[in-house]
Amino acid sequence: MTHATDGLPAGKVLDVLDRIADELGDRFQGTFGRDTVERFVTETYYLLERTATVKTHLSTLTARFARERLLDLAKADGLTQVTAPQVLFVCVHNVGRSQMAAALLAHHAFGHVMVRSAGSQPTGTIPPVITEALGEFDIELSNGFPKPLTDEVVRAADVVVTMGCGDACPVYPGKRYLDWDVPDPMNQPLSVVRTIRDEIDRRVRQLLEELQG
C-alpha cells in the first residue's frame, strides 16, 4: 500500500521531509538543533496529513506550518527577541471565524502584531464565500489552510481569542483570554457572512487599539 504527498509514493515522503528539515535547519541554525527541527517537521507533516482534505500541496504546507511552529517555540522558550504582541485565534475547524479574524488583524496591523489561527478540530477547506467576503476588503486568503492547535502556539501567544471552540484551548497563566461570541459563517450565504465579517472586524479593530495603546 502506498501513501502519497504531492503525488509522491510513500518511499519519497522521507526525502521530502529531509529536504524541508535541511531548509529549516539552516533557517534556525544557532536556535535549534537538527533533532528538534526534524522532529517538528515530521510531526507537522503527520498532523496535517491526518486532517487534510486535499493533499496536493502537503509538503509546501508542512514547510510553512513547521516554520511557524519553530518560530513560536523560540518565542515561547525565550530564545528570540520578539517585541510585537502575538494573537492567536481559535475556532473548531479553522476554516471560518478564526481565519477571518486572523486575516483582518494582519490586514489592519501592518506587521506590528504577530497573528496565528488554529482549530481545535481542524478539517475541510476555507469556503469560497469566506474568501469572497474578505476579498471585498482587499484581503487575499488564497494561502489559508486549517491548522491544528499545538502547545507552542498557545505558549507563544500574548492574547488567545476563542471563537466557539469550547474548552479545547489549554490555559496558561499570564496570558489574556477572550471569548468572542460570533455566529458561525459556515454554510451561510454571502449576505450573512458579510454581517459576521463586519462584527469580527469591529472586534479586531478594538483589540488592535488596545494592543497599540
Automatic annotation (TrEMBL):
EC number: 1.20.4.1
Any single Pfam family the record assigns to this protein: LMWPc
Keyword set, alphabetical order: Arsenical resistance, Oxidoreductase
Domain Phosphotyrosine protein phosphatase I: 85-210
Gene Ontology molecular function, alphabetical: arsenate reductase (glutaredoxin) activity
Coiled coil: none
InterPro entries assigned to the protein according to its UniProt record, in alphabetical order: Phosphatase-like_N, Ptyr_pPase, Ptyr_pPase_sf
Origin superkingdom: Bacteria
Gene Ontology terms describing biological process: response to arsenic-containing substance
Statement: the UniProt record of this protein carries the keyword Nucleotide-binding: no
Classification via NCBIfam families: MSMEG_6209_Nter
Record protein name field: Putative arsenate reductase (ArsC)
Organism: Amycolatopsis japonica
Gene (UniProt): arsC2
